Amino acid sequence: MKAAQKDPITRLVNAFRQLPGVGERTATRLAFFVLNESDEISRELADALVDVKEKVGLCEDCCNLTDRDRCAICEDARRDRSLVCVVERTQDLRAIERTGDYGGTYHVLHGLISPLDGVGPDDIYVRQLITRLQKTGGEEAIEEVIVATSPSVDGEATALYLQRLLEPLGVRVTRIASGIPIGSDLEYADKVTLARALEQRRQM
Amino acid sequence: MKAAQKDPITRLVNAFRQLPGVGERTATRLAFFVLNESDEISRELADALVDVKEKVGLCEDCCNLTDRDRCAICEDARRDRSLVCVVERTQDLRAIERTGDYGGTYHVLHGLISPLDGVGPDDIYVRQLITRLQKTGGEEAIEEVIVATSPSVDGEATALYLQRLLEPLGVRVTRIASGIPIGSDLEYADKVTLARALEQRRQM
Q1: What is the pLDDT of residue B168?
Q2: Which has fewest Cβ within 10 Å: A91, B43, B54, B128?
Q3: Residues spanned by CATH 1.10.8.420 within chain A?
């Protein structure tokens, strides 16, 4: 028996349920919220959803998500082009931007090398970083690449791979520090982090 | 200074933030989820959002939300039309339907009488219930109205109002029971609920 076309409310509930962390109860609450609120809220969300998929692509320099050819950071003349911070995802780039402490440019890999999951260097945006390194020179030459992938197994593997790949090209490769988070209690730090923090102690 | 047109990602994050219980962090997570997933998910949600606002209106009999003239429950010939359960919102109707225990019809008020908030009987769908009572007769005559509003101040006020309004029309008006929830511990019941449960004790 073919089911009848789902009614619009059930359809909306099911559409919300596709989102991460949204179960039936939340999806129903969101659907009735939309139903009870002004048309504007649902129209805005609907437009933004279509728009983002149509207009957003990768920056031709750094692979950041953007609706232009080059992202706002690469377009910004005040950014230090000799410095490139390599991150796994656009979200990580945004997190670093929020600190307000970084004035260089970025490169977004859109993934990490993961031998266990069968993800190799060609499956993420490594090639684009090499091309960029080879293309730039003179005043715009890249002097340092900061590998800011997470200190996870895949993040470390990716960092190691990039170090071996980039150092022969005459670029300084650095890694973000890992250790005890600021403001957290030593007592509750996991032992791997604590061991790392001890190992990477520095002169005061 | 007029701000430049927001980029599509920020626009989507802001649109998600309009939803209840969605803060900046969740909105960002949802936006990047949509960006990374197939077009289908965002397209489906966008379509459902537009659809629901365009197609869903009130059932001409019971004021339930529906995309037809009459809702599926009012259209169902097997439902007992002599019995009308009055609820505050469509969500409450759905909760009762989920029990699978109720074979009558409904009336959705879309609100409660709330003197403190300045909501009177004319601000909710009471008139439609009266019209329906007066219109129906013979085999379809309404014999009992179950007031299933919440046992809150406004819910009780609305129930009392409906009782005074409907009883003179020759309809039996009943109220859902309130008391200790099934499976919960007497020890932890709030004292108002416990007092009510004692007061409304019944012969075994």
Answers
A1: 92
A2: B54
A3: 8-55
Chain A to chain B, count of Cβ pairs less than 8 Å apart? 136
Length of chain A: 204
CB contacts under 8 A, A 77-116 vs B, are 89-91, 94
- Axis crossing angle, helix A39-55 with helix B39-55, rounded to the nearest 10: 160
Q: How confident is the model at residue B181 (pLDDT cuts 50, 70, 90)?
A: confident
**What distance in Å separates the CA atoms of residue A143 and residue A133, rounded to the nearest whole number?**
9
State the Cα angle at B188 between B184 and B189, rounded to 5°. Answer: 75
Interface of B with A in 42-61 (CB under 8 A): 42-53, 55-56
Query: Tell me, what's the pLDDT at A72?
Result: 94
- From the number of C-beta atoms within 10 Å of its C-beta (0-12, 13-18, 19+), residue A58 rates as middle
What's the fold here for domain A76-175? Dna Topoisomerase Vi A Subunit; Chain: A, domain 2 (3.40.1360)
Query: Are the beta carbons of B53 and A35 separated by less than 8 Å?
Result: yes
User: B162 or A177: which carries more pLDDT confidence?
Assistant: B162
* Dihedral (Cα; A36, A41, A43, A47), 10-degree rounding: -150
Question: What ipTM was predicted for this assembly?
Answer: 0.76
- B132 in A contact zone (CB under 8 Å): no
- Convert the pLDDT of each residue in A22-74 to its tens digit: 999 999 999 999 998 888 999 999 999 999 999 999 999 999 999 999 999 99
Task: Give the nearest partner residue to B52 out of A8, A66, A89, using CB atoms.
Answer: A8
Mark yes or no for CB contact B51/A15 under 8 Å.
no
pLDDT score at A3: 43
Residue of B52, B69, B73, B125 best to disrupt the A interface, most CBs of A under 10 A: B52
- CATH, range B79-172: 3.40.1360.10
Distance, CA of A84 to CA of A80 (rounded, Å) = 8
What percent of chain A is predicted at pLDDT more than 70?
98
| CATH superfamily of the domain spanning A8-55 | RecR Domain 1 (1.10.8.420)
